């Protein structure tokens, strides 16, 4: 499986996948996202800007992620190791529930790192809610380092920022 740029004709399938992911997360008491986020408008804008990437399996969207240079202002509080300014930011990473438990998240993270290296980025930055233990385990197992915690508005629990410096 390779990382490919999402295409406009895939929008409906992608939106439905995100809705399914949010349901599974809620069922598992992971409130990383809510009913309003991510929504169709956000996903559409990611797609329009060419920042939405997919992995496919058996002709279906197996995973999605947004890759860009946008970092929220809350990241200003974080002490990043790589100060070159050549970071890639990861947002809205998810695996279709139909394909969860098959190692796709790990493969997706590896593909993101390959993408970053090919494009000349020196590090990757991302975050997850501190209650999302599955995501934290994934990132830490792939060599991402916790760089600090912060709060997004309207969330009662902190998020943890991760970084991986690429060599």
From TrEMBL:
Keyword Transit peptide: no
SUPFAM superfamilies (alphabetical): Acyl-CoA N-acyltransferases (Nat) (SSF55729)
Record key words, sorted: Acyltransferase, Transferase
Pfam families cross-referenced by the UniProt entry: Acetyltransf_1 (PF00583)
Any GO molecular function: acyltransferase activity, transferring groups other than amino-acyl groups
PROSITE patterns reported in the protein's UniProt record: GNAT
Stored Gene3D superfamilies: 3.40.630.30
InterPro entries reported for this sequence: Acyl_CoA_acyltransferase, Bact_Acetyltransf, GNAT_dom
Domain N-acetyltransferase residue range list: 1-167
Protein name as catalogued: GNAT family N-acetyltransferase
